[in-house]
Amino acid sequence: MEKPKIIAYLKPTCGWSNGVRAVFKKYDLPYEDRDIINDETQRREMVEKSGQMLSPCVEIDGHMLADVSGEEVEAWLLANQVVAPNNLAFEVPINRACGAHVRR
Questions:
Q1: Out of 39, 56, 95, 103, which could bridge 71 as a Cys pair, Cβ 3.0 to 4.6 Å?
Q2: CA distance 15 to 94
């Protein structure tokens, strides 16, 4: 399969953003990680492209997925046959909110 062009508008530390990153790692998909917290230009671009202010937002070959979890990104990739299913485990939860506490 040819690798898609992916731009991910993410927060540096956030459960949702880390879940999106984990999906890309599981499927070995290269992507541009755009920091919307420390780079105002990237945040403005995300809002302009997605039409809203919530993140993560992921653009895959020109198709915008706005305010998504890693779970939703994975479902979209599989449904659109961008990736084939695999049995690899995720390194982090893919559906955890920012600020969610992990019990140890």
A1: 95
A2: 7
